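seq as requested:
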Amino acid sequence: MNWLLVIVGAAVGAPLRYLTDRAVQSRHDTVFPWGTFAVNMAGCLILGLLTGAVTAGAASSHLQLLVGTGFCGALTTYSTFSYETLRLAEDGARFYAAANAVASVAVGLGAAFAGIALAEALWT
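struct tokens:
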């Protein structure tokens, strides 16, 4: 049963990642990978909120599998982030490569902590 929850979450997260990436990137005339950045930050926020909800007892382990492992696992993409950062560096856009790496880690952690703080405010 657990594997089915992961599959269902991933079946929603993967196409949403692709569609969001394309929609966001089409609105920016830059080499910076805004689409991947957006989905990764959204995933960090959602995962932080979910983690806080589970910790507070407001969400079940089944929801954690569905949303955390399945949906967020398919929505976010470390491999694409790595590829795009490397591609930027190889193409001579070293500033954008460094900015992508630093901002992804810093904003991602901030989004996760913000999600946990929001969960604590809502359920404690």
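The chain has a mean pLDDT of 97.
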